[in-house]
Structures are given as structure tokens and as C-alpha cells.
Amino acid sequence: MPEVDSALRRPDLSDRRLIGLVVAALVLLAVAALAAPTLPAHWQRPGSPLLQSAAIIGSLLLLVPFVFSLGKRAGVSRVPNRLFVAHVGASLLGMVLVGAHALAGHGGPPLAIVASLVLLALTGVYARLRVAGSMAATLGTKTAPFAAPDPALRERLRSLIARKRTVLERLDPAASEAVFSVTLAHWLRAPRLSLAYVRLAREEARLIGARASVGWVQAWWRPLHLALAWFFLAALLLHVVVVTLFAGYAADGPVYWWHLTDWGR
């Protein structure tokens, strides 16, 4: 057998190892919450140099999944599974660091951010452990999408696919409509054509009942996961802006953390 290029070997992240990492992260967060009242003052103030630094590092780590998403859609990695392993590792470590920072505050908006982060992690883990297997089992067994539609629907699909091919000829002439999906490069190069193609692809999926042909978990876990991800990112950025630019508004007393301005006082 030809030797596999070491650069292309896929790193393994088994279900058991994934569960162990998640449990370890949740245990660390629970220990941080329970032990905080007994620790020195700099462990009980979320804006202390120690915990603010932890929050900054954790926030940067939590941006790795967004890089993973961009990398996957841009096709920049020859071994996408490496990005997934980095996604999981950075997310869990970032969750612990940001969680330690937020739990020291004993309430307020940061805890809502951590809650969304925990839900984000749980939906991702559930998808890996349960949904992926269900999707694999479903593949090739869904009779509804492959059954012959009624003549009117068949004509609508024929017209829609013809429009997709017309758009694709302008968007990516070398691509095949049957297996094509819009990537980041397409969005950057031709955003209007990319949007038009995505809309047509979604309309096609709606007409053939792709989402309705599977259970609601398979159909909706990804939209839920993405919604939580964007909510978390928006809440995190808002929190950073408030505590660095409007520190006077955020502080319940003197501003003791590093900040740029104390507007809102």
C-alpha cells in the first residue's frame, strides 16, 4: 500500500475523548464557581488583571471556531478535520477561561454570555454524538426526495434548475450544478450571483421537501447552533465595547480594570 502523506493524516477525536473533554471543561467551571468565594480577592473580581487577562485569552480562543467555519467554506485546509479538532479544543479552553472571568461577577450580562456559550457547546457535542450518526443512517434511505413529483412540481423544479445553471455559468463556469456549493471565494468575488444561487438552492430544497424528510433534530440543529454562535459573538463584542469604552456605566463603583474610557459615569 502507498504510504500516506503524514501532512494529510486526519487527527482523530473519538466520541469518548470528546465527552471526556466536555466533562472536564464543565467540571472546571463548576469548581471555579464553588471555590471563588474562598479564593483571594483577585479571583473574585472579574476585572482583576488575572481574570481580565483570562477573559481576553479565552475570547481570542473562542474566535477559532469562526476561523474554522471560514476555512472550511474557503477550502483552505487539505485536512478539514484538523480545523475541527482545533475548533473543539479552542472552544472548550476558551469557555473555561471566559467562564472563570464571568462567574467571578456573580450575575449580570456576562453570565448570559456564558450560558449561550454552554448551549453552543452542548448543541455541537450533541450533533457530533447523535445527529451525525442519524444523518449517516438517513443518507440514501429517504424515499420522499427521490420519488417522482407531480407534473406541476416537476416543471417548477426543471425551471428552477435551469435558472441555477444559468447563474452558475456566470458564477463558476467550471463547476457542476449537481455538486456545487457557494464558498467564501465566490461570496468575495461575486456576492450578488452567490446570493442568487443560494436563494435558488434553498427554494429547490423547499420544493423537494429536503428538511421535511428528516426529523426535526436533523432539520434544525444546525440553524440553532449557528444562531447561538452569532448571538454569542454579538454579545461578546458588545460586552468588550461596554467595559473598555463605557467603563463608568459598567462599573458598580470605581473602575478597577484596564479600559480606554470611562464614559457613562
* Multimeric organization: single chain
Mean pLDDT: 80
Number of strands: 0
- Please estimate the helix content: 55-70%
Task: Kindly give the count of domains.
Answer: 2
Per DSSP, the total helix count is 11
Features:
single chain, 265 residues, mainly alpha, 2 domains, 11 helices, 69% helix, elongated, disordered N terminus
Write up this protein.
The protein is 69% helix and 0% strand. It is mostly helical and 265 residues long. The chain has 2 domains: 12-137 and 216-250; 147-208. Helix 4 runs antiparallel to helix 5 and helix 7 runs antiparallel to helix 9 (191-208). The longest helix is centred in the middle third of the chain and has 30 residues, at 109-138. The model is unreliable at 1-8 (pLDDT under 50).
How is the secondary structure organized here?
Blueprint: H1 15-35, H2 49-62, H3 64-74, H4 80-103, H5 109-138, H6 143-146, H7 151-171, H8 184-189, H9 191-208, H10 216-245, H11 247-250
Entry summary:
The chain has 265 residues and is an all-alpha fold.
